[in-house]
């Protein structure tokens, strides 16, 4: 492909993933207990390792780096403070994953702080569940990561997207390729482990929601 | 259970895993890119991290910590030097996994150093393959690790065992529980990632052996 100068250059084509969506709810999850490649500089490794240990990267195998949930045209978005997300522990992360698919977040906006009321997970079945849902897409990605040995994705994120409405059209995209390394014949066990851990949390939210619907557990 | 003093005490029952075997071939593989628990002391973490980075733990998600392969009553065992194992890179580890199921290791003994000749993997199908083979047992273990959130196994090993003969009776055991921590509702993504990486290598050795047998690839 020719650059504007007329010279042939390899190009990276960027895609605006949310351009086709009106008011998408978004979650950005950085996958992997380790965000540094083995070949990185000592300085960079020390910096990353500190963040990995302070966040849930080491404990959960992933950490939240962005979240906004559409509530309504008037109220806009629920969007937790950056600081709240950074300090989130494993239980907080589980709660954020529940809030992402909940419709009772108005109180979060009013109080201005994280609410005590339990997220209702009313959209869990349509966003996380179903044959085109996020869980199904994650399982497809998992099968690929169990086999592919071309790339290792460090500090990459999974972006979850959906829109409130009749067809929520949930979608998962792999984003942020600044630290992709060659796999050299080895699977990306670091990404895969974190992905499996995320799949487990989302499966649990889905099955808890089903049990609640079927009256098997108390709200 | 009562101790020798007559007082009730919780007991750990130890099992000698190889007592029923005559000349078992053994491989000890420490699983997990990270051998330290998040709660460990800084000193311990620094020590472990250094070893994890120097060995294949970080790159492969596991490292070899012991290997002996029975050759015959007269020649005894092929047993690489501790130092050779410690310095092994990913390609060396793949070679050791091949040697474990090979019958042409005599030259290794004679030369006293690692041989140039390619391991024949003549026992791959009967030890790694088959419905009771090591790969099948690893896949069963993987399914358990994808779900269980009770324990996190740090610096634990998988022990592979088999005997040369009509029934090689291959077996996989999880050993060395000195650093097991509570899982607190999270899967052991660190162990699982390494396990998947090991499964990939063993699957490749098996399929290469099959292709060789079927004339699809050159020796």
What are the secondary-structure elements of chain A, in order, as H or E? EHHEEHHHHHEEEEH
CATH superfamily of chain A: Inositol polyphosphate kinase
Give the structural class of chain A. alpha+beta
Spatial sequence of strands, sheet with the most strands of chain A: 3-2-1-5-6
The biggest chain-chain interface is: A-B, 26 and 26 residues
Strand content of chain A: 15-25%
CATH fold group of chain A: D-amino Acid Aminotransferase, Chain A, domain 1
CATH class of chain A: Alpha Beta
Mean pLDDT of chain A: 92
Number of separate strands of chain A: 7
SS field, number of helical segments of chain A = 8
User: What is the molecular shape of chain A?
Assistant: globular
- Return the domain count of chain A: 1
The main sheet of chain A comes to: 5 strands, antiparallel
Please state the oligomeric state of the protein chains shown: homodimer
Spans of at least 5 consecutive residues with low confidence of chain A: none
Q: Calculate the terminal CA-CA distance of chain A, rounded to whole Å.
A: 57 Å
Helix content of chain A: 25-40%
- Per CATH, which architecture of chain A? 2-Layer Sandwich
Calculate Rg of chain A over CA atoms: 19 Å
How would you sum up this structure, described in words?
Chains A, B: Inositol phosphate kinase with a broad substrate specificity. Chains A, B: One of its GO terms (molecular function) is inositol-1,4,5-trisphosphate 3-kinase activity. Chains A, B: Its EC number is 2.7.1.140, 2.7.1.151. Two copies of one chain form a homodimer. The first copy, chain A, is an alpha+beta fold. Chain A has a single domain, classed as D-amino Acid Aminotransferase, Chain A, domain 1 (2-Layer Sandwich). Chain A is 36% helix and 17% strand. The first copy, chain A, contains eight helices and seven strands. Chain A has a five-stranded antiparallel sheet. In chain A, strands 4-7 form a two-stranded antiparallel ribbon. In chain A, β2 (62-72) and β3 form a beta hairpin. Chain A starts with 24 loop residues before the first strand and ends in a 6-residue tail after the last helix. In chain A, 37% of the residues are buried. The mean pLDDT of chain A is 92. Chain A binds chain B through residues 33-34, 38, 49, 53, 58-61, 90, 146-147, 149, 184-187, 189-190, 192-194, 196-197, 199-200, and chain B through 33-34, 38, 49, 53, 58-61, 90, 146-147, 149, 184-187, 189-190, 192-194, 196-197, 199-200.
